[in-house]
Design brief:
elongated; alpha+beta; 359 residues
């Protein structure tokens, strides 16, 4: 029906900000943190598969057989005397003719230092090639920044031929795009969660999920089609007051993106709620809401300006004579203990709406 389609479009407009915000966050996280690089973990390359032109960003799994020398130590602390070593970069082979860096982090430093010690023994002739261990590594290839490249190229000591053989890249052990694999996975999950949070209200709006209560109310009338026609006619002929349409047969409003359709006698109590906001004890402003309490115990909180609340309550007083207006503690107790008293009030007021009893 055209009327229900219009309600779906209204819900879509209400949900649009959330859809755009969460989808933008999903795309932003995915792109900024390069979450797609996790795909490389599923099919890692070996160093033999790479070329200097295509190696940056590739996830690698391979064995490193020779550590030549460390060229950069990463420290964490107030000064170099009490700082903790959190990482070391070593010169290693890329292939038989060229070199690259290997960045090892704190979790594998002891293994890397043992490897460096073994390699030193090998270079000194104290260890045979058969006894030389290998270090199995996984990680992404990263381009060196200016500082890292400066320390790295110092190893060449001005030897132009050696500098040409030293590729300005390093294998970042246990990292994807500079972060641990688990951290990168968490970012990907976060991106997907935001995407789902953004797409869910979009799908729900397009499929009429926000009109579930409206359809249930129309179905409860017995003849869905005729009830829907009457509701559509009510919607078209009734001007909203502060976003709420009031009539002798129906009341309609939106609660967030949800469409809400009630019979007039479903609403038994209405009042204004005022919230005082404070920052560090200093008043910073007030917000206002119209509170609608229903016969089935539900509460609808409709945020709006104070004047809009008063306009709505005035319209309710005129259009829905059975609704109790204003808040006090005794009414709260009565609502919780004896809502039948509110129904009896509506039964007394039904003739004013041209009705004989709540339906």
């Amino acid at each position: 029906m055209e009327w229900l389609k219009q309600l779906r479009m209204d819900s879509l407009r209400k949900a649009a900000f959330r859809v755009i915000l969460f989808c933008a966050l999903a795309v932003g996280i995915f792109v900024y943190f390069q979450c797609w690089t996790l795909l490389g973990v599923l099919s890692p390359k070996s160093l033999a598969d790479l070329t200097p032109e295509t190696m940056e960003g590739i996830y690698v799994e391979d064995d490193i057989y020779l550590f030549y020398t460390p060229y950069l130590e990463e420290l964490y602390g107030e000064n170099r005397y009490n700082a903790e070593t959190t990482g070391i970069q070593y010169l290693v082979d890329f292939d038989q003719e060229r070199f690259m860096g290997l960045s090892v982090h704190k979790d594998r430093l002891s293994e890397a230092e043992a490897m460096m010690t073994a390699c030193e023994s090998y270079f000194d002739g104290a260890l045979s090639s058969e006894d030389l261990p290998a270090m199995h590594v996984k990680g992404s290839i990263k381009a060196m920044d200016d500082e890292e490249r400066g320390y790295y190229m110092e190893l060449a000591d001005g030897d132009i031929e050696l500098e040409a053989a030293m590729l300005p890249y390093y294998l970042d052990v246990g990292r994807v795009s500079g972060r641990p694999v688990l951290a990168q996975l968490c970012l990907l999950i976060g991106s997907l969660a935001f995407l789902i949070a953004g797409l869910f209200p979009l799908v729900k709006a397009l499929t009429g999920g926000y009109q579930k209560q409206v359809k249930a109310k129309l179905s409860a009338a017995g003849d869905f089609e005729s009830a829907a026609e009457r509701a559509a006619l009510f919607y078209e002929r009734t001007e909203p007051v502060s976003g709420v349409r009031l009539g002798s047969e129906y009341v309609y409003f939106m609660n967030g993106a949800n469409s809400v359709l009630l019979r007039p006698w479903d609403i038994v109590w209405a009042y204004q709620s005022t919230t005082q906001h404070r920052t560090n004890g200093i008043p910073t402003g007030k917000t206002y809401s119209a509170i609608l309490r229903t016969m089935d115990g539900k509460t609808y909180t409709l945020g709006m300006k104070e004047q809009q609340v008063q306009s709505l309550l005035s319209a309710i007083q005129t259009s829905l004579p059975g609704v109790v207006l204003g808040y006090d503690d005794e009414l709260e107790k009565l609502y919780k203990s004896d809502r039948a008293a509110f129904r009896r009030r509506w039964e007394d007021k039904m003739p004013e709406l041209g009705q004989t009893a709540p339906q």
